[in-house]
Every structure is written in structure tokens, then in C-alpha cells.
Hints:
The protein has 594 residues and is α/β, with parallel strands linked by helices. The protein has helices at 10-15, 18-24, 27-41, 52-63, 68-86, 96-120, 126-141, 167-206, 253-271, 305-324, 349-362, 411-415, 455-463, 483-498, 544-548, 551-580; strands at 211-212, 242-243, 284-291, 333-335, 366-372, 379-387, 391-397, 428-429, 436-439, 442-446, 468-470, 501-504, 512-514, 520-523, 530-537. Strands 3, 4, 5, 6, 7, 8 and 15 form a 7-stranded mixed β-sheet that branches. The chain has a 6-stranded mixed β-sheet with strand order 9-10-11-12-13-14. Helix 13 links the parallel strand 10 and strand 11. Helix 5 packs antiparallel against helix 6 (96-120), helix 7 (126-141) packs antiparallel against helix 8 (167-206) and helix 8 runs antiparallel to helix 9. It is elongated, with a radius of gyration of 29 Å.
Amino acid sequence: MSATITPVDASAADTAPAPVTRLRRFVRPGAALLSGLLLYLSFPPRPLWWLALPAFALLGWTLRGRRLRAGFGLGYLAGLGFLLPLLIWTGEEVGPGPWLALAAIEALFVALAGLGVAAVSRLPWWPFFAAGVWILAEAARARVPFGGFPWGKIAFGQADGIFLPLAAVGGTPVLGFAVALCGFGLYEAYRQIQARRAAGTAAGAVGDEPVPTGTDTGSGPLGSAGTPASGSGTGLDTAAGARPRTPRAFPRGPLVAAALAVLVPVTGALAALPLVDDSAEDGTATVAAVQGNVPRLGLDFNSQRRAVLDNHVARTRELAADVKAGRAPQPDFVLWPENSSDIDPYANADAAEVIDGAVRAIGVPTVIGAVVAPETGKLRNTLIQWEPDRGPVATYDKRHVQPFGEYIPMRSFVRIFNSNVDRVSRDFGAGTKVGVFDLAGTKVGLATCYEAAFDWAVRDTVTHGAQLISVPSNNATFGRSEMTYQQLAMSRVRAVEHSRSVVVPVTSGVSAVIRPDGEIVAETKMFTPDVLVEKVPLRSSLTPATRMGTLPEAVLVALAAAGLGWSAFRSVRARRTGTEQGGTGARGGGPQMI
């Protein structure tokens, strides 16, 4: 009996699945962009902190098992999806160029994180290493270039979230690590459950049908797709012939690791709740935050500097009148915003006179935000302690001035691409001393505006004795954008991190008073004149995060380095094994290096 071979139309077979194949190429890039967009949506002013979890779960699916080059590219797409909308306010007054450039550069750090996550994703307990890699990228982004740009740290989107108490344990690195770990763990738990279901279904359908020895079932005891349970790491037949499939228990290790990746952050946050304490260890202080408002939005409001100063003087005098009439409580001290006097009171007698008159009217120490312009050298973004009977007695110069905002690095080179650099006609210089003022017996730590994003700039004030933190800011340049809400969330996280009340006076809003538990007890609207007067608890004890400083971050960076080193070792070993076997190396032993 002869067999009949039916010819197959090869061209039809090749072209039929082509549209589906082309579409599948866009699935992971689309998922990467979506994960970044979900991260953005988890940030204020939206209270959608929990969206960070599916964002990291989706990112885990996107990156797991990818080649390093693909991990970098997919990570870059995720970074653009996250940072382009998050930082759109940077182009509020200077056009899209600086915004696009900043987002494109900062997304490179997310791309490197994507590469790292892809590298460690084949390891046992990979969600822990992957979360460490994310913190490694954040640590780098907070330091370079030009002193770093930590805006968009995952921790800053968690002011309303269940993980917030972890800020008191290890600061923003531990808080961000917990969120990333939980998200990656959710994906790994889903993957393990699906793998077990698929294996059970396949076993029931095939029964005792012989299968090749060493065949990869898709999940091994290390939780690594492409790594067989036999431990060879190659996924290749180790012996000729076949063996019957026999029932075996699915390894529990990967599922346990996935469960712990989810449960450890949640239980850790619950265990940290006692650290969130708003009791008044050192009594209370009644503080006033003045929001004088600005004449109009945008960069050019500085041309009306006297109007900004007069607005804050007027609000302070109104408060003094309300106190005298019994309509408002007498504050122990008053806080003005950054740049509330863009006229140097040391050089301009008229400005000094109106400030002194307002401070005498309220009768308590007042912190003035001023631009100090020495005859030579750089400008100073200065906070001045002004006493009603002695005038200016102490100053704090902003220590981390904003690149491309307060000074222009590589000015002549940058001018080639954007002439707006010359709007900053004279650079600001950075101060060197920690800012802590003694205001009527209360030690107030000072972190000016942009400094609130930097762990060290806030922590230093607390370790130098601050019982309360002030974050005077000037956000008028950025109009009604989300910037002011993103920055306010940073102050809420800092309140819990250091167990301190935080007062945020802003020229144009949103000004706020925050308790040590991160709750906002009073806030203003944007672009309205207002004054907040609130009694806040004072505290002097130090949280573990304050005591340990950079140690938690260093531990997480070391975790990431260990994972990356282990991954590289496995990759090299797998390639050597492949060479010894005649060039039939495997992909299961580690990530592909190209």
C-alpha cells in the first residue's frame, strides 16, 4: 500500500499567520508603555497609589526572560510612558524642548533598570532582585547628572498608600522597594499558578504518553522558565529514547518565593504602623504659613518682585490684625515661602523696612525667603530668620540649587539648543551649612523647595535637632500643573519618614500643614492669598530611617549587585557548558548577553 503525499502551498502557510505575528511584535512594547503610564497615574494629584502594583506586575511580565538588549529597550519605553506625562510641567513656560529632553534623559535610568530586571529574571527569588535593581536605578538617578533628579521616585507616589509606614523604617528606598517587590511578586504568583494549572491539564490529557527525557515543562524548582527540573540548565535531552511520564509533585519553592514577595511588604507595612506616631513629645507649636500669591503666572512674575513682597507683607499684617481682634490664634512663629522677597533686603533699605514692619506687627520670629545678590559672585537663594526686635539674625542658603532653573550647566553649549537659558542671567550658588533655625524655642529644619526630593537634604535637618520641618517653596513658574501636588506628596512622605510635622508655605499654593503621620490638616487653594494657622506636635525622637541614613539603600543596592553578578555567572557558565557540548549551549542558564 503506497502513501499519498498531499502537497502544501508553502507560500500560503508562510503568509497566513503574518498579520498575527506582526501584531504580536507590538504586544510587549505596548505593555511596557502601559506599565509606565500606570506608574504615572499612581502619582498625585490622583489618590491611585495602588496602580503602582499592576504597573510593576505588567513590567515584570514584559521583561521576564527577555534578552538584555530587549530589556533595555522595553525599559526605555516604560520610562517614557512614566516620565513624559509626569514631568510635562517642566515645559510650562519654556516650551516642549526642555521637557522632552529631561524625560528622554531620565528614562535612560529606567532603561537600565529594565536591562537589570531582564538579567535577574531567570534567577530564583527574582522579584527580590528585580525590586533591588529598581532601587539601584533610583539611587543613581538621584545622584547623576548635576547632583541628580529624584523626582518620580516610586515612594513619592505612595503618600496615601498602605506601604507608607515603611518610610519610617528605611526611608524612600525601602518604601519604593516594597512597592516594586509586591508588584513583581503579584506577577510571579500569577505565573506560578498558571504554570501549575497548565501542567495539570497537560498531564491529564497525555496520561502516560512517553515524553523525551529532560523536556522542559516551563517551570523548574528555581522558578525559571526554560530551566528544567533536572537541573541541567540546558533544556536538552540528556539521554536517548523516552521515559514514561510519571506524576510528580510540583516544586513549592517558586510559589513560596512569589507569595513572600507579596506578603513581606504588606506585613512589613503593618508591623511598621507603631512607628507612625503624631504624639507631641516636646509639646506643641502654633505656626502660621503665609501664602501671599503672585501677580500672574509664569517666569515673568519676577519682574513684579515688589508686588510679591508686598503681597506677603499684606497677608502678615492682616494676620496680625486678626490676632489682635481675637479672630485668629497668636502664632509662635511665621513662615514665608521661598522667593517671597526677590528684592535683597540686605541691599535694599525699602524692602528691609517693609519686612521689618510686618514682622513687628505680628510680633514673632518670621522666616523670609529672599534672593540675596552680593555685588560679586553668585546669587543666593536664602532663608532669613527675622526677629521683631533685632531684624535678621540667621540665614540658610539653599544647598542643592536646581540645574537649568537656578543655574545653567554648560551654558554656552546649551544655548545652541535653547535660547531660554539666558532667562537665568546670573547663576545661583549653593550653600554649605545645614539649615536649622531656633524660632521662639522651636528648632525648625529647613529644606527649600527642590531639596525636599533629596533624602539627605531633609534628613540632615532632623539629625541636627529639628523638631519640625519647613519646606518653603515657589511653584508659580509651573502654573496650575501637577507639579505642586507632586511636591506636596514628597513632604507627606518626609513627615512619616522622620516623624516630624512639616509646614509647606508656597508663594502661589498649594501651602499645607502636615502632621507626623503624613495627614494634611490644613491646605490652601492655588493662586489665592491665604494664611494657615495651626497647632502642630513637636517631636525629637528619631525613626529607624533617620538613624540608619543611607544604610537601607546601600543594602538594597548590594542586593541588586548580587543578583546581577549571579546572573552574569550563570550566563558565562551556560555558555561554557554549551561550548563543551559542541556549541549547543542553552538559554536556560542565564540571560542572553545580546
